[in-house]
Amino acid sequence: MIDRWWALLVFQFLWVAPVQGAEYPNVVLIMADDLGYGDLSCYDGWIQTPAIDSIAARGMLMTDYHSNGNVCSPTRAALMTGRYQQRAGIPSVVAAAKNNPAHSWGLQPVENTIAEVLTTRGYQTGIFGKWHLGYFKKYNPTHHGFKQFVGYVSGNIDFISHVDQAGTFDWWHNQELSRESGYSTHLITQHAVEFIKDNQEHPFFLYVPHEAPHYPYQGPGDKADRTVGGEFNNHGSRLDKKEAYREMVEEMDKGVGDILSALKTTGTYRNTIVIFCSDNGATSLGSNGVLRGHKGTNFEGGHRVPCVVQWPGRISKGSRSDALMMSMDLMPTLLDCTGLSLVPGCAMDGTSMREIWEGEPAVSDRTVVWNGTTLRQGNWKLMLAQKGVKMNSLFNLENDKSESTNVIGKHPDLADDLIDKLNLMNRDLKTNATVQPSGSY
Question: Is there a catalytic annotation at residue 72?
Answer without folding.
Answer: yes
